[in-house]
Specification:
The chain is an alpha/beta fold. The chain has one domain: Rossmann fold, CATH 3.40.50.620. Strands 3-2-1-4-5-8-7-6 form an eight-stranded mixed sheet, with helices on both faces. α2 runs antiparallel to α8 and α4 packs parallel to α6. The longest helix has 14 residues. It is globular, with a radius of gyration of 17 Å. It binds adenosine-5'-triphosphate and magnesium ion.
Length: 224
């Protein structure tokens, strides 16, 4: 088991809407787990995602049920109901601070490149990097050359001076935490795509785990 110097576990937190969780999420999470030597990786569905306040989102119970089905049998994958239990708009800074206070683990906050590009719109974003390591996963459409050289302009201007280049794809924050840019297998799947295929009456097999597909069909999700 990978422990940090203080004997804590290495724990990944993968937040999102997960409406529904799909194979792009799962495979990317698996690769991050492996690359960073995580002991556990928590999928954490947001109660109300701040950037999706005006879009209809499936109920928490359904999104959660699908995550549980998707990760069943996976040794390191977990599901956290932290944000759902707390309710209201889910802000990552609050979640990370609380999660760290309660567990004391070495945290790796996992997000996709598309989400990272909007990080300057997140609540208290400069502080996020003091609380947790970050793993930024590539998402389909990314230039694979993104790791080859120092590229501090990945970071919002206001916080650029807080980072220094360490080595290929790794930046060190002044807090000592790191940001890892990690290429993952490009599975060009999104939850929007799964919902779109359902609306069009087409198959979603192999876009989501079989048990998730069965749940979606059984409950008639995303047909409207
Ligand atoms: P939607 O299309 O509804 O926005 P999504 O597929 O982007 O859904 P989210 O729940 O919004 O899924 O994403 C949660 C996190 O997972 C985000 O950080 C996003 O960048 C990342 N992510 C989603 N799909 C992939 C994928 N195929 N590969 C890598 N990362 C992904
Ligand atoms: Mg998204």
């Amino acid at each position: 088991m990978a422990m940090d110097r203080s004997g804590n576990k290495r724990v990944g937190l993968f937040g999102g809407t997960f409406d529904p969780i799909h194979c792009g999420h799962l495979r990317a999470a698996e690769e991050v787990c492996q690359a960073r030597g995580l002991d556990e990786l928590f999928f954490m569905p947001a109660a109300i995602p701040p950037h999706k306040r005006d879009v209809p989102v499936s109920s928490a119970a359904r999104r959660l049920a699908m995550i549980k089905l998707a990760i069943r049998g996976h040794a390191r994958f977990r599901c956290s109901t932290y944000e759902l239990d707390k309710g209201g708009t889910s802000y990552s800074i609050d979640t990370l601070v609380d999660f760290r206070r309660e567990n004391g683990h070495e945290l790796y906050f996992i997000i996709g490149w598309d989400a990272f590009c909007e990080i300057s719109t997140w609540k208290d974003y400069p502080r996020l990097f003091s609380v947790s390591h970050f793993v930024v996963m590539s998402r389909s459409g990314m230039d694979p050359g993104w790791l080859d050289q120092e590229q501090l302009d990945f970071f919002p201007v206001a916080i650029r001076a807080d980072f220094c280049y360490e080595n290929k794809g790794v930046y060190r924050h002044r807090s000592g935490n790191r940001v890892y840019f990690q290429p993952v297998t490009r599975l060009d799947i999104s939850s929007s795509m799964v919902r779109r295929e359902r609306r069009a009456g087409r198959s979603i097999t192999c876009l989501v785990a079989d048990a998730v597909r069965d749940y979606i069909v059984e409950h008639g999700l995303y047909r409207g």
